[in-house]
Amino acid sequence: MTVRQDPAPLTRHLRVRDDRGRTVLRFHGEIDLAAADEIAPLLDRATARPGARVVLDLSGITFLDASGLRLLTRARNRVLDEGGELHLVCSHPLTLRVLRITGLARLLPPRATLDEVMGGPGPA
Fold first, then answer.
1. Which residue from 11, 67, 70, 116 could staple onto 36, CB 3.0 to 4.6 Å apart?
2. Rg for the chain (alpha carbons), in Å?
């Protein structure tokens, strides 16, 4: 049995991998101003391609402030401006509450799991 592993993190807050034709960005830890500064260039690179298919996976975060919300909004705008698609994975109750209160959940509806976005479990 083969176990799929994420590649080494590009920063302590972000791992990026390709999965079934999509770029999956998995966020980790606290996404605050310092983390956003580390993440922004990598996020910009992943969302710059025309027609990019991107998944922002927040299942590994423990905190998200306004800087993190700006990252999500920036990614959404960049991907949609280039004719791509963007999905958000988030099930943490406090983060979901912040997304709803700010209205971002209407613009970028969160899915509970990565499998829900990807259409089922990936290869073993």
1. 67
2. 14
